C-alpha cells in the first residue's frame, strides 16, 4: 500500500493531468491532424472590440486559416471601427464583416449570437462576461472567454452553471489564462505536479508594476459612458486590479497546487499613490495569504504604483526542493536534487490557445476550461474581499456571497447612474 506521501503525489499528478488535459488536446491528438479532419469554414464573432479583443481576433484568424471573422460587436462605435480597420490590415482575406454585421450597443452581443457564427470571442470588460457567456452557451456557440470571467460571486456561480451546460452540449470553452498555454510553464508545472520538488508547502506570487491608461472625461459623455471608457478603475466593471490582472498570478498559484481550493484567506490592501478621483474606487496594492489544507500557504503580493521596482514571479517551495518562474526574465527552473532549466521550444501562448481551441472543434473533441477559469477568478475575488474588509473569509463564505457589484445585464442604458461605492476601508467595509 502506498504511504501518504506517495498517495498525495499520485493525486496531484492525476489532478494535474486532468487540468493539463483541459488545456491541451488528448494524448496522441495532433493539431494538424485535427485541422485536416474538417476543413469547412468556421465563422467567428467578436464581442468586445478593445485592444484585447482586437488581438484575440487576430490570433484566432492566424490560428485557423479556414476561420473567418463575420461579425463584430461593441458598445462604442469608435472602438468597433478602429478594431475593424486594424484587423483588415492584419488579415484582409479572413475579415468578412460588412456594415450590416457591425453591431453597436448594450444588446450588440445578442445580435452576434443571432448572426450564424460558430465561435465567439468574449473580450468585453469582465462585468459583462457571465451574461455574455450564458447567452453564448444557450445559443450553442463555442467560446473563447477572456479572463477574468466575473467580478463577484454571483457571476462566478453563473459561469460555473453555464460551463456545465457547455459540457452537456459538447461545446469547447477556452479561457484567457494564457500562461496555461506557454510551453515553458507547461513543462515546469508538469514537473512540480510529478513531485520533482516533493510536496508543495508554499507558493509566493508577486506582480509589481506601474500605472496604466486613462481616458479623460469628455463633455458629451454621460457618467455611464465615462465609467465604461475607464472600466478598469471601477470595481463593479473590472473587479479591481487584483481580479482583472493579478488573476494570472493566482492562476499559477492554483496550478502549482493541483488546482485545489483554499480553506480561507486573510489580507489587506489600499491606495497610496493612485489617490485622485479619476482612478475610480480600486486599490493600488494588495497583500493576501491563502490557507489550504495541511497548513499549505499561498501568498500574493502586488502593487500598481509609478516609480517603483517591478517584478512578475512565482516561487514554489516543496519538501524536496524549490521551483521558480520569472515572467520578465523568462526563467523556468526547479532546484531539487539537481537544477533543471527549461531549454525547449518557445511559443506564443496567445496563438496556441486559439490553435488548440479550433483544433478541438474540428476534431469533435471539445475542451472545457469553465470550472478552471471560474475557480481562478474566484481566488482573485476572495483576495479582493479580504483586502477590502480586513477580515478572514472562508472559500465557502465567499463563494456563497450574494453581494453583487453592478446592475443586471438587462438594466444597462446610457443614462443609468451606478452608485459607485466609496473606496473600501479594511476593518469597516462589509463584503459578505
Overview features:
globular; alpha/beta; 432 residues
The proportion of strand residues reads 15-25%
Radius of gyration: 21 Å
Number of helices: 15
Bulk shape: globular
Kindly report the average pLDDT value. 92
Question: What is the subunit arrangement here?
Answer: single chain
Q: Based on DSSP secondary structure assignment, what is the total number of beta strands?
A: 15
Encode the helix/strand succession as letters. Answer: HHEHEHEHEHEHEHEHHHHEEEEEEEHHEH
Let me know the largest β-sheet: 9 strands, mixed
Question: CA-to-CA gap between the ends?
Answer: 45 Å
* Uncertain regions spanning at least 5 consecutive residues: 1-37
The residue fraction in helices comes out at 25-40%
Structural class: alpha/beta
**Side-by-side strand order of the widest sheet:** 14-13-12-11-7-10-9-8-15
Describe this structure in words.
The protein has 15 helices and 15 strands. Strands 14-13-12-11-7-10-9-8-15 form a 9-stranded mixed beta sheet. It is globular. Helix 2 (31-37) crosses helix 13 and helix 12 (247-256) packs across helix 14 (370-389). Helix 6 links the parallel strand 4 and strand 5 (142-145). Residues 1-37 have low confidence and may be disordered. It has helices spanning 4-23, 31-37, 51-63, 77-90, 108-113, 129-138, 153-169, 183-193, 223-229, 235-238, 241-244, 247-256, 349-363, 370-389, 395-399; strands at 42-47, 67-74, 102-104, 119-122, 142-145, 173-175, 200-209, 264-270, 285-291, 297-304, 311-318, 321-326, 331-335, 339-341, 393-394. The chain has 432 residues and is an alpha/beta fold. The chain starts with a helix and ends in a 33-residue tail after the last helix.
Amino acid at each position: 500500500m502506498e504511504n501518504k506521501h506517495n498517495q498525495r503525489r499520485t493525486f496531484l499528478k492525476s489532478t494535474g493531468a486532468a487540468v493539463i488535459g483541459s488545456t491541451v488536446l488528448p494524448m496522441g491528438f495532433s493539431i494538424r491532424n485535427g485541422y485536416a479532419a474538417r476543413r469547412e469554414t468556421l465563422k467567428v464573432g467578436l464581442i468586445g472590440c478593445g485592444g484585447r479583443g482586437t488581438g484575440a481576433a487576430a490570433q484566432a484568424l492566424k490560428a485557423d486559416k479556414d476561420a473567418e471573422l463575420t461579425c463584430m460587436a461593441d458598445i462604442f462605435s469608435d472602438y468597433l471601427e478602429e478594431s475593424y480597420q486594424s484587423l483588415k490590415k492584419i488579415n484582409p482575406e479572413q475579415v468578412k464583416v460588412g456594415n450590416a454585421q457591425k453591431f453597436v450597443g448594450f444588446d450588440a452581443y445578442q445580435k452576434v449570437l443571432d448572426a450564424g457564427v460558430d465561435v465567439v470571442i468574449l473580450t468585453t470588460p469582465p462585468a459583462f462576461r457571465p451574461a455574455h457567456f450564458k447567452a453564448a452557451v444557450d445559443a450553442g456557440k463555442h467560446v473563447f472567454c477572456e479572463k477574468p470571467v466575473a467580478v463577484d460571486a454571483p457571476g462566478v456561480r453563473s459561469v460555473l452553471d453555464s460551463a456545465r451546460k457547455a459540457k452537456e452540449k459538447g461545446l469547447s470553452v477556452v479561457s484567457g489564462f494564457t500562461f496555461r498555454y506557454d510551453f515553458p510553464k507547461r513543462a515546469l508545472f508538469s514537473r512540480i505536479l510529478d513531485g520533482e520538488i516533493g510536496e508543495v508547502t508554499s507558493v509566493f506570487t508577486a506582480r509589481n508594476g506601474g500605472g496604466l491608461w486613462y481616458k479623460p472625461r469628455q463633455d458629451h459623455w454621460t457618467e455611464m459612458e465615462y465609467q465604461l471608457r475607464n472600466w478598469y478603475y471601477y470595481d463593479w466593471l473590472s473587479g479591481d486590479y487584483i481580479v482583472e490582472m493579478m488573476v494570472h498570478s493566482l492562476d499559477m498559484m492554483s496550478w502549482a497546487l493541483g488546482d485545489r481550493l483554499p480553506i480561507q484567506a486573510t489580507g489587506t490592501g489600499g491606495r497610496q499613490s493612485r489617490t485622485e478621483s479619476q482612478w475610480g474606487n480600486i486599490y493600488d496594492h494588495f497583500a493576501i495569504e491563502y490557507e489550504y489544507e495541511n497548513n499549505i500557504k499561498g501568498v500574493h503580493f502586488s502593487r500598481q504604483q509609478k516609480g517603483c521596482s517591478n517584478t512578475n514571479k512565482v516561487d514554489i517551495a516543496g519538501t524536496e526542493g524549490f521551483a521558480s518562474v520569472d515572467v520578465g526574465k523568462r526563467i523556468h527552473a526547479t532546484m531539487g536534487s539537481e537544477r533543471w532549466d527549461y531549454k525547449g521550444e518557445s511559443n506564443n501562448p496567445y496563438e496556441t490557445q486559439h490553435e488548440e481551441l479550433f483544433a478541438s472543434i474540428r476534431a469533435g473533441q471539445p475542451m472545457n476550461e469553465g470550472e478552471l477559469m471560474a475557480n481562478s477568478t474566484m481566488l482573485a475575488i476572495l483576495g479582493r474581499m479580504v483586502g477590502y474588509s480586513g477580515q478572514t473569509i472562508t472559500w465557502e463564505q465567499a463563494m456563497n456571497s450574494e453581494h453583487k457589484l453592478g446592475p443586471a445585464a438587462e438594466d444597462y442604458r446610457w443614462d443609468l447612474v451606478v452608485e459607485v461605492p466609496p473606496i473600501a476601508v479594511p476593518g469597516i467595509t462589509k463584503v459578505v
